[in-house]
Amino acid sequence: MSLLEIKHLNKSYDSKTNVLKDINFEIESGDLVSVIGPSGAGKSTLLRCINRMVNFDDGKIIFDGKDTTHYKKRELRKLRTDIGMVFQHYNLVPRLTVIENVLHGRLGYKSTIQGLLSMFTEVEKENAFSLLDTLGIVEHAYKRCDQLSGGQQQRVGIARALIQNPKLILCDEPIASLDPNASKVIMTYLKQITRDMNITCIVNLHQVDVAREYSDRIIALNKGAVVFDGSHLQLTEERMNHVYGMETRELITV
Ligand SMILES: Nc1ncnc2c1ncn2[C@@H]1O[C@H](COP(=O)(O)OP(=O)(O)OP(=O)(O)O)[C@@H](O)[C@H]1O
User: Fold this and answer.
1) Which of 18, 33, 75, 145 satisfies CB 3.0 to 4.6 Å to 92 for a cystine?
2) pTM, rounded to two decimals
3) Could you tell me the CATH superfamily of domain 4-237?
4) pLDDT tens digits for 183-200?
């Protein structure tokens, strides 16, 4: 069974222009899937539809066998504990320590009072340290986040997503603010997470070479439509031109 099924998804912000047009795909557990495409193609909007930060106009999103299309408050809260987010600008609380930021990933499981009082169990704290260890930054656990490099902060962002125990992690341009070495480290960790923890990652990327190197599969959007869906080997120069330079919007079948 697929972890995620997207069926005939359409989304507009202003009810005139469709930002996403009849999107259809399925994703299996444990895959690292990159979403590429020119600026404004709809990559971020697609991720926001999947975790329902924005509503869509029509179509269906089936996650872990359940149709999430009509989810309301409580179901959305549960959905968002199953789906971690990693952001371009990390979205950490700079004045808090690394370990506190990681534990924030557990807030979706807490009551408001528990959250306000930062009440975390010993097991949660042990898990947070263990994740920081896995991501190679445990020695920074008690530093303020704003004392870390960009690459280290992004690893904190990944640990915060992982401590949710997600089935899926959505990464919106996770390496856009990083240098090539730090980018490599982040992509290697994301690959490791999919392989060792069987967590699916969908990663929006502008760097096609990175998408080619790390992804099990690449989906390309242009003007809101899927114009390529296949492996890095199938993404030929000609198809790349189609993704970034084309005028037509027909799907390249592979
Ligand atoms: N909140 C919003 N309200 C109105 N229009 C929006 C909103 N968010 C995005 N858009 C529009 O939707 C289209 C797709 O934007 P989106 O950010 O999803 O593309 P993207 O492929 O992620 O772009 P980039 O690579 O530049 O981040 C763009 O035309 C954008 O202007």
Assistant:
1) 145
2) 0.93
3) P-loop containing nucleotide triphosphate hydrolases (3.40.50.300)
4) 999 999 999 999 999 999
